[in-house]
Here is the input.
Amino acid sequence: MLSKWRAGLGLVAVVVCSCLSAPPVSPHDMDGLAEQYVRLVLALGQHDADFVDAYHGPEQWREDARRDELSLDGISIKAGLLRSTVSAGDLGRDTPVDGQRRTLLLKQLTAVQTRADLLRGKKFSFDQEARLLYDAAPPHYEAGYFESLLVELDALLPGEGSLSERRSRFRDSFVIPSERLDAVFAAAIDECRKRTIQRIPLPENERFVVEYVTDKPWSGYNWFQGNAYSLIQLNTDLPIHIDRAVDLACHEGYPGHHVFNTLLERELVQKRGWVEFSVYPLFSPMSLIAEGSANYGIPMAFSGREREDFERDVLFPLAGLDASRVDEYYQVEAVVKRLNYAGNEAARAYLDNEIDADAAVQWLQDYALMSRERAQQRLKFIEKYRSYVINYNLGKDIVREYVEAAGSDSDARWTAFEKILSTPVSASMLQ
Ligand SMILES: [Zn+2]
Here is the structure.
């Protein structure tokens, strides 16, 4: 073990000591290793504006990254060497939570190296990329799987035209009028927050602001600023349907991204001094946990028929929609949600160069029942974020399985859910 460590340090000294100011670190010095990881993430952020999703660590480290201008080659090499050093640490001496910390750091470093390699032009298949960046193996579904669900929807959406056109027409009656958007979202956020803080105590100062934006490839985004504060942006390029109010309030806010980031900051950075959690690299295993918990946060906050009841009593009237149609709407949407993995299949086939952009947009219309405009927006998302798409549905399924394994008691489920939000975990660590 020791000789391996010495060999690793020798390489560090030879290959990269001129690129980084930080000295070599012992494999047992997790805080020192974590600092080097944060510096590498910030270095990669200099090449990739999307990579550093949030950073609330020392400002000097960001300035160092700007000054050092570490190349992509250098980042890839350094990430590999740092991973060797971290893995040379004595796992047997770690407490369980220290072991979790070390295991996640290794996986995060794999992601840093993979993203740097991808930007250098190295080719990965969709599945390889998903495994290296997100620590998960996305399932494969044939068209036949989705076709059986489309038959179900065919009966629910009578009328002329293709199924995606019929769904679009059906949904036209459930668009939130733009002048009511803010009131509807505010009510949804209040409810999600109320339900979450009954289960997970949050810091007194936690807060966020909501901004409405346009011309983005996503529908909503949480930009965590540190100190329990988030900036949440909602994209109004396309009509916003009523289900998006609770979805986005839970996903971006409570108990989703805002709570996840707030708990990581409080439990791991502030209480334990684990500096690696002051940075959130977007293309990394943390994102599967973030997106999966944000999506599973919706049924955590609203169990059984609570969501339909809340929407009928509060959101539909606030939006000026016909509250007698809540059940009809959610009956259709429940089947459409099961088509969700069709988006992954489009992304895989497109990124693996098996189909072109037009065919991907058509597939999203035919199998995920998106409108043409929504499918085009989704393709832009796929081009920019690539295999990240698996984090939403596969992430949700992995989080669900973990939480449900705690039993049917709701307290036990919330305890399991909170553990995911506040300890170092990745997809394979939950399975
Ligand atoms: Zn998200």
